[in-house]
Amino acid sequence: MRECKRRARIIVLSSLFSAAVSLQYSHQSTFRIHQHTKPSSIHSSQSSICLPLQSHRLTTRARCVLLSSTKGDENEDDVGKHPQRKKKIGISKHIQSAIKKFKARPGTYLLIPVIAAFVGWFTNYLAVQMIFYPIEFRGIPIWRKEGEPLGLLGWQGIVPAKTYKMSETMVNMVTTQLLNVEEVFRRLDPDIVASTLGPEVPKLMESIGDELVPLSWTQKAGRALFFSLPGRTKAAMASANHRFLHDFTISMQDNIGTLLNIKNCVINQMMQDRALLGQLFRKCGQAELDFLTNSGLWFGFMLGIIQMIVALFWENPWALSIGGAIVGLATNWLALKWIFEPVNPIKIGPFILQGQFLRRQQEVAKEFSAFFANNVLTSEKLWDSILNDPSTKSSFGLLFTNHLKKFANVLSGGVGFLLPGGILTKASSSALEKLPNHLHVLHPYVDKALGLQFTLRTQMEKMTSAKFERVLHPIFEEDELTLIIAGGFLGFAAGLVQQGIETGAAAKWVSKCKLRMKKLVSKLFPASTATDQS
Fold first, then answer.
1. Residues 6 or more apart whose Cβ sits within 8 Å of residue 78
2. Which ranges constitute the DSSP H helices of 360-468?
3. Which of 38, 116, 479, 490 is 20 to 30 Å from the Cα of 155, by its Cα?
4. First to last CA, the chain
5. What is the pLDDT of residues 455-492, one digit of tens each?
6. Are strands 153-155 and 138-140 parallel, antiparallel or unpaired?
7. What's the Rg (C-alpha) of the chain?
């Protein structure tokens, strides 16, 4: 159909040109008849010569026009048949334009990946700092929700702000997957506990006696009475002391669930010192935190190359600002994903892909168990929780009082008299208050016997990747979106600076600032300004 149209067009054009030739010939013939007075034979011969020449010239021009129109039609047909030519022409024009832009200002464009690398590093560094600092809320506390790091005007580190929630999650993980409290306390040998703590009991009883009977002569009389007792009686009293401590240790082991609240023990420590939980996470995840910071450098550089290419091809002054925001968002997001994903190892050819943190399970287990056993679940901290935690204090006091009364009755019966009930109650209360001063001799043995570091380490090494991932990931995912958005905001700000440099707005702004400073100085110090000008 298109070919038929083309041929019809050629026929119409040829007929039009033929008519034009004939009209011009007749006009020229008439002109020559009126101008020249030569014989008709000569005129006819000249006209006969001119006609072929003019017709030849005109037909040649017509042919050129026809050929050009034909070629134009053929080119239109070729472009119609080959639309890819248009795309190639458009792409080549864009490439040439980009090359010209780069040659005009190479330093400006080469600076884009460098600034993007700095933006990526700085946003990630700031994200890590925002996880742990500040310990206390900094800002204007106009409005702030407890347990949230971000206030209306201010910020608190994510870990310090969410200490309670994170500590609770960690304790649940420890008590359900790593540690059986009852089984651990069964490792204490009651005889060793009694032998270790036995020498402290007479000191405790003496301090109680001094408090109940403050007169010096009665104290001397009591000591004299004790030393005057037969050796067999003294041995019986020492045996009763050992039996008291032995039985009391067994009773504690049987009732450890009501005497020790591990959850409160850990959370109370973390809440008293909000930096403690951050120290634990940094100890376990320092390699990942360093990776999160440093990865922003090369992630940002690679994205900056893309940003530079976009700026060369996209004629939009906001390309750098938008690109900077994308760099800030992407570097934080990529780094966080790289640390914890994939959770389970995936083999692709000779490579095995797995989250950076999950690859270090053995090392993290070692660091976590050492920190937890030596700083959180020590014998001193456990005893402090047993004696002072409101949820366990009354249970321990009742158990201790019952065993102490039995022991006191045995002792008083050995010397021939029984103590009144009121005195025993006062003695028990005093003993509970003074007991922490005498437990220090027991701590080294308890720490060694419980073996918490070894237990925590071996159990953590056995955890599946999915469960192990929950050891550190909660500190990031609590406010992961906040960290990513903060990175995007800082990236946008850096891109805005780049945009100002490229468009010249930054130079104009600097010059305006200098001019305003000069005016301000001239107003403040008019005398010195006049002297400088002179």
1. 85
2. 361-371, 379-388, 393-414, 421-434, 443-450, 452-461, 465-468
3. 116
4. 88
5. 999 998 988 888 888 777 776 666 677 767 777 777 78
6. antiparallel
7. 48
